[in-house]
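Tutorial handout. Part one gives the primary structure; part two gives the three-dimensional structure as C-alpha cells.
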Amino acid sequence: MPVVDVRLVDVVKKFGDAVAVDHIDLEVNDGEFFSLLGPSGCGKTTTLRMIGGFEEPTSGLIELQGRDVTWLPPYQRNVNTVFQSYALFPHLTIFENVAFGLRRKKVKDSEIKARVSEMLALVELPGYERRKPTQISGGQAQRVALARALINRPAVLLLDEPLGALDLKLRRQMQVELKRIQQEVGITFIYVTHDQEEAMTMSDRIAVMNKGRYEQLGDPESLYERPTTRFVAGFLGISNLLPGTVDSRGGQHAGIRLADDTVVRAPAALVEGRDRVAVGIRPEKIRLREETDPTPAGHNELFGVVKDASYLGVSTQYQVEARGGARLTVYEQNVQRATKSELWSAGEAVRLTWSPDHSFVVADQASHPSPGATDPTTPDQLEPEERS
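Part two.
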C-alpha cells in the first residue's frame, strides 16, 4: 500500500456565498508528482493554498504525513511553495537566495555551503553563486526558486503555476527538468496548472477540477483514453462526442445507436447502467478512407464530407460532416501522404473508421455544478489567486 503524504477530508472553502472548494476528498501519495488541473476559478489554487496553510478551510480536515495541520500556519508545516512570481530577493546573490532558509535555521556555514552547492548542481546552475537575480534569465530564476524551496528538505513541495511566466519553448524544457528533479529528490510534488499538456507531461496522477471538485482522478493515460465526463473529455484535448442510445450489451462491445440510426460500438464495460450516452472518439484515432474503400473488420464506420482542411506541418486537421449532421475533427499525420497536394480536399466524400476499443463513453449531458454548489467563477467573488 502506498504511503499517503497529504490527505484532505471533506474540505470546503467559501468566500462569502461563493463556494470555491466544495467538499473535496483527496489523497496524495509519498513521492508522487500530483497535479491539480483545471480552468481559472475551478478551486485548484485555493486547494493548494489550504494545503500550504495560506488559506484556512471553512470546514474539513487536512493531514500532512498523518498529522492534523488544518489550523496550523505555514511555518509550522513541513511544506514549501514555489510561486509563478519566483519571489527572489533582488539584493541578495543567488547563493544567499538559496541559503536563506538555512540561515534562518542557524545552520553552520560549512553545511550551508555544501547544501547550496548541492542544490545548484541539482538545478544545473553551478557557478552562478555570485550573480544577482537581475543577472539571470527567467528560466534560471525559476530554477533558483526551486533550489531555495528544496534546500529545507520539505515533505511536500507545492508549485502554483510556476512556469506560467515562461515562453512556450522554455516552459517545455522546464517541464522535463521539473520531472527529473522530482525523481532525483523523491519529494512529493503537488502542482497546480491550467495547461493540460503540462500536467500530462509531468504527472503520475492528475485531479481534473471543475466548479470546486475534481470530476476525475487518475494517471494521464487513463484520463485521456477513458474520460468519464464531458468536461474531462473536452478539457484534456479534443473529443468528438456522438449522442446515442445503448442498443445492445452482449459480448465485449456494446452497440450504440446514433441519431441517424447508425450503430457504433464501444467497450461494453463503459455502458453498464446507462441507456442514453455519448460515444467519444479522439481525432487522431479516426482514419479517413475513400468512401468506396472497405472498412477493416470489426471497426466502426461513418460516412461524411470533408468541410475544411488545415495543414499544420506534422499533421492536418480536418473538419468532417457526417451524414447524420455531426461535425467531427480528425487529425491525420502527414507522413501518410507524400505532399500537401495529396491531402483530402473540402467537398470530398470519405469514410471514417476507428476501432471500437478506441471509443469511450460519457453521460449524454453537459457537466453541472454539484448539488448545493455555487459556480465560483465570477471574478469579483474570489480571492486574487483564483481570478487568473
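Part three, for discussion. Residues 168-185 form the longest helix (18 residues). The CA atoms of residues 19 and 119 lie 40 Å apart.
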